[in-house]
Amino acid sequence: MAGSVPPVTDERSGLLAYLAQQRHVIRIAAHGLSDEQARAVPSASDLSVGGLVKHAANTESGWIDVVLQQPQKPFDDAMADYFDNYRLGESETLASVLDRYDRIAARTEEVIAGIEDLGQAVPVPQGVPWYPKDVEAWSVRWVLLHLIEETARHAGHADIIRESLDGATAMPLMAAAEGWPESDWVKPWRGAPVAG
Asked: What is 51-113 written as a DSSP string?
């Protein structure tokens, strides 16, 4: 079935496949956009498709740092960057953010492949107000499930923002991005009609 994860043989490949599929879906929302369109905020929120891709990439990178127990930025520094993580900077392009997302995805795959037990403890960083104070550790499995949840949430946001930009919806965009032939069921998105 189009847009679905193929059958999986084990938990690790299943978790990674579902995360990859949600990354793919958020990329589909960006298909065919110019940098100007990727920066646009067409709804009542400050969200843009490019900013959502950037945020999803940064979120995944941050969680893999937590798995690896990398030092975290002090809370005040992290909060200073928080809102910038939701928008493309002046020197950023949609292509550069998507390329970075690919590198982060490859890093995630490599890190998870090197962890023998998905039940391995991931200590909860201290001093971050949105992390629970009554939990000492998550597991790698929990982190992967959380990344799937976060990526799916933002893929849904990106779908809504994209539809607000030019009316494009998920299945025609997926058909265009993946080169599906036109059928009675779906017509690949071909961009906005040119006024003439």
From this structure: HHHHHHHHHHHHHHHHHTTPPPPPHHHHHHHHGGGGS--TT--HHHHHHHHHHHHHHHHHHHH
Cβ atoms 176, 188 nearer than 8 A: yes
pTM (two decimals):
0.92
Count of Cβ atoms closer than 10 Å to residue 51 Cβ: 27
Widest distance between CA atoms in the chain = 63
Cβ atoms of 97 and 88 within 8 Å: the answer is: yes
Q: Which two tokens stand for residue 15?
A: 């978790």
The series of mean pLDDT values per 10 residues for the chain, 196 residues long, is: 81 97 96 96 93 96 95 72 85 97 98 98 88 94 98 97 94 93 93 52
- Outline where DSSP puts E strands in 18-134: 121-123
Which one-letter DSSP state was computed for residue 85? G
